[in-house]
Design brief:
The protein is an alpha+beta fold. The protein is built from 4 helices and 6 strands, in the order H-E-E-E-E-H-E-E-H-H. Helices cover about 55% and strands about 15% of the residues. Strand 1 and strand 2 form a beta hairpin. The longest helix has about 40 residues. The N and C termini lie far apart (about 50 Å). Keywords: Coiled coil, Cytoplasm, Protein biosynthesis. This is Ribosome-recycling factor. Responsible for the release of ribosomes from messenger RNA at the termination of protein biosynthesis. May increase the efficiency of translation by recycling ribosomes from one round of translation to another.
């Protein structure tokens, strides 16, 4: 029973890490990355539609992203959607494709992005700690219901804490890598 709780928290914490990695992908570093447009929504025929469902997004050069719409008539809507997303990007089109030139980051902007990464990291750590708290509550309930002994409760709580520490370290490692990528000139 309690081993199932440990497996469950491992799975939930792994999902939290994957979500954190997706959040990190949206943070712009020095080079072009099509993932920074994942959060862009475009008003397409009155419905908010993700940009990646309306166009192919590529990064042919280190400082440029190309957005090739499937429907050429949606180019204006795509440009407006990118501007509304407030990513600090200026799209331009030639009627067939939208080009987004990625400007070099200023030192001030790099520091702001590091703070954003820190915010994402803290949200993920809180999520991990909430999973730990729920697991410990379930273990205490099992002990109260005489499903496990007090000694087993302590051992399982230690296991839960070890898993929590492991995932927190993983988040810290991802943050270090992303900060190094952002601060790289």
């Amino acid at each position: 029973m309690s081993e199932a709780i440990i497996k469950d928290i491992q799975q939930k914490m792994d999902q939290a890490i994957q979500s954190f990695q997706k959040s990190l992908a949206t943070v712009r570093a020095g080079r072009a990355n099509p993932a920074i447009l994942n959060s862009v929504m475009v008003d397409y025929y009155g419905a908010a539609t993700p940009l990646n469902q309306l166009a192919t997004i590529t990064a042919p050069e280190a400082r440029m992203i190309l957005v090739t719409p499937f429907d050429k008539s949606s180019i204006g809507d795509i440009e407006k959607g990118i501007q509304k997303a407030d990513l600090g990007l200026a799209p331009s089109s030639d009627g067939n494709i939208v080009r987004i030139v990625i400007p070099p980051l200023t030192e001030e902007r790099r520091k702001e992005l590091v703070k954003v990464v820190g915010k994402f990291a803290e949200e993920s750590k809180v999520q991990i700690r909430n999973i730990r708290r729920d697991a410990n509550d379930q273990l205490k309930k099992n002990e109260k219901d005489s499903e496990i002994t007090e000694d087993e409760l302590r051992q399982y709580q230690n296991d839960v804490q070890a898993e929590t520490d492991k995932f927190i370290k993983q988040i810290d490692s991802l943050v270090e890598d992303k900060e190094a990528e952002i601060m790289e000139v």
